[in-house]
Amino acid sequence: MEETIDWVPDTDFGYEIAHAVPGVDDPEILQPRLLYARQGRTGEYDTMVDRMKRERREYLASFPGLDEAIVKSIG
User: Fold this and answer.
1) What is the dihedral sign for C-alpha 45, 49, 55, 56?
2) What's the pLDDT at 1?
3) Could you please report the per-residue DSSP string of the chain?
4) For the segment 24-39, what is each residue's pLDDT rounded down to a tens digit?
5) What is the Cα–Cα distance from 53 to 32, expressed in whole angstroms?
6) How confident is the model over 49-62, as a mean pLDDT?
């Protein structure tokens, strides 16, 4: 079953996430934003995304000499 996963860009973090996987009937399980939206918890998800991005920026900023473009790429 090689190469059977359909990937899409994640709108929050920019990396690819699964959109369709054989045997998984609920695509919202694969895409957290959709799952939280279905549950009426979009605000909670947005808060979580903001926190994770902030934490990643802070962590990367702890490396002296790291290209600032890398830190800024997180959003």
Assistant:
1) positive
2) 55
3) -TT--EEEE-TTT-SEEEEE-TT---GGGT-HHHHHHHTT-HHHHHHHHHHHHHHHHHHHHTSTT--HHHHHTT-
4) 998 889 999 999 999 9
5) 15
6) 93
Nearest to 31 by CA among 18, 42, 44, 14: 18
**Rounded CA gap, 19 and 40, in Å?**
21
pLDDT for 1-17, tens place per residue?
A: 567 899 999 999 888 99
Structure-token pair, residue 64 = 């002296």
User: Rounded to whole angstroms, how far apart are CA atoms 67 and 28?
Assistant: 35
57, two tokens: 């920026």
Backbone conformation region of residue 38, classed left if phi is above 0, alpha if psi is from -120 to 50, else beta: alpha
